[in-house]
């Protein structure tokens, strides 16, 4: 099939949506399809559209369906679609969802917010992750806790740094953050935090290889987001065996499982500080986290993601 894969342009080429779209393009090509990536629909014929983000791709989906009404659309629902725009700007979001023949969510709890009338179109495809190229070797000089993601409001990106301030003076926990600041204000806040907090280092936007090296020497990773559709960095940490300390939101629980022991309430700095202390001082807690991750790791195998896409396309063709 000829597939046009729409992924609207973002502030950086390494946004979660763009990274996911690039990986799906590779999967679809391996399945034998011709795929072109585009930020918008230019009217060129295609047998199928895969659109990332209901709100941002609304115009592209509408144009494609108007020109090729018999051709299916697969719509991947982002976190901002189902946890923000579906309430704050519902008309284009719900219009895209209604036009789509299939809806793809990235976490197992997304069905709780998708309109009931559309749930029959919904399928969950967990984003996969490859193993680290080298064995994981957590730092011996400090308890390194990584924060991986761009600095923007929805990520609550300085929560781990603020929690580290509350740790005892003897603590060896160090927070290392990578990711681009979406605004000058976020860059200024991160710079100010480094000056005031000797336990915090922000390294800015780094290549994916540097992210993998950081994971390899991390004792844990923090994801403190206010909302998520299903962060691929969780898949990467799980596959690498890096314990995750996560805000208790559907996008995280839908990946890590309801019984995962590493959650803290959204925005609760003290609760996160307590988890960091347990990470540093309680080997049994670290073991529990590791066992819980091992149970979830099969969800994020590349072969599983490819099989899910193959079945999704086969179902549409039938």
Shape: elongated
Total number of β-strand segments? 12
In sequence order, what are the helices and strands, one letter per element? EHEEHEHHEEEHEHEHEHEHEHHH
The low-pLDDT segments are none
What is the CATH level 1 assignment of the largest domain?
A: Alpha Beta
Major β-sheet profile: 6 strands, parallel
Mean pLDDT level: 94
Distance between the termini: 14 Å
Strand content: 15-25%
Q: How many domains make up the coordinates? A: 2
Written account of the structure:
- By secondary structure, the chain is α/β, with parallel strands linked by helices.
- The chain has two domains: 2-127 and 301-317, Rossmann fold, CATH 3.40.50.2000; 143-300, Glycogen Phosphorylase B (Rossmann fold), CATH 3.40.50.2000.
- It has twelve helices and twelve strands.
- A six-stranded parallel β-sheet has the order 2-1-3-4-5-6, sandwiched between helices. A six-stranded parallel β-sheet has the order 9-8-7-10-11-12, sandwiched between helices.
- The two termini are 14 Å apart.
- The model has no long low-confidence stretch (mean pLDDT 94).
Blueprint of the fold:
Blueprint: E1 2-6, H1 16-30, E2 34-38, E3 48-52, H2 58-67, E4 73-76, H3 79-88, H4 90-99, E5 102-105, E6 122-124, E7 143-148, H5 159-165, E8 173-178, H6 184-196, E9 200-202, H7 208-216, E10 220-223, H8 232-240, E11 244-247, H9 250-256, E12 263-264, H10 269-281, H11 283-296, H12 302-317
Parallel strand pairs: 1-2, 1-3, 3-4, 4-5, 5-6, 7-8, 7-10, 8-9, 10-11, 11-12
